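FORM 7B: Structural annotation worksheet

SECTION A. Query
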Amino acid sequence: MWDSDSNVTKAELLKGLDGVDGIICLLGDKIDPAVLDAAGPNLKVISTMSVGVDHLDLVEIKKRGIRVGHTPDVLTGATAELAIALLLAAARRIPEGVEMVKRGERGGVLWMCGYGLSDSTVGIVGLGRIGFAIAQRLVPFGVKRLLYSGRTAKPQAAEVNGEFVPLDTLASESDFVVVTCPLTPETRGMCDEAFFSKMKPTAVFVNVSRGAVVNQEDLYEALSGGEIAAAGLDVTTPEPFPTNHPLLSLTNCVVLPHIGSATYSTRGTMAALAAQNLLGGLQGADMPCELAF
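SECTION B. Predicted structure
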């Protein structure tokens, strides 16, 4: 079991991998050539307790003929719920409000006003499993328009009256932008100065994808300069996020420690599926969710 959050050093962990047949990777811990070399030629399967696999060196893993299992679908609902919570927290300034209560502060009529979802336009970058689940949950809030962008139009978008638009259109017309696309060479750093400059000054930006999709320095400038109203991030680069990062100094930026799938039931299901994938790979049998790459 590879877990970078354990109390032992990486060198000790690498030594413990010597001769293993399989690895369970917990919640996105990096599997690089050093880990693969430490495991040695017996390694048959890597089972990651995550949907995304950007933390795996897939080129090297494929070269060595190692099978990979992951855990799609089971965390879709939990991540979609967290995205909505993060959107509302940023838009309605909930963390700020908590601090105001602690300080005993109170203001006038427009004090602590934020932005609501009713009659708004929401743009979702990447209408995959999680993006679609978020869209479904937004409908009861009375969203007026739901835009989405991606490589191709999605047939299921009709169920939520989704409009397929170019990314620039989504940025400029949305009151809320939610990023759920996978991290790829094309999406890395996609949300940058040019992207934020197209957004409305009243817009709220949310990222539950991967931290590297966003240029965090550009996001800081957009938030601190009033180019956009607020942001909510469940993913950052790196993770854990440095406590002295400028984004943490902003009252209009809510940052969470990558807890999209963090419900008891979801994590339990993920763990069980990861174990089943590992056993299938070790036995040379079918894996419930084997990655095709």
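SECTION C. Observations
Residues 206 and 232 are 5 Å apart (CA to CA). Strands lie at 22-25, 45-48, 67-69, 121-125, 145-149, 162-164, 176-179, 204-207, 230-233, 253-255.

SECTION D. Sign-off
Analyst initials: ____
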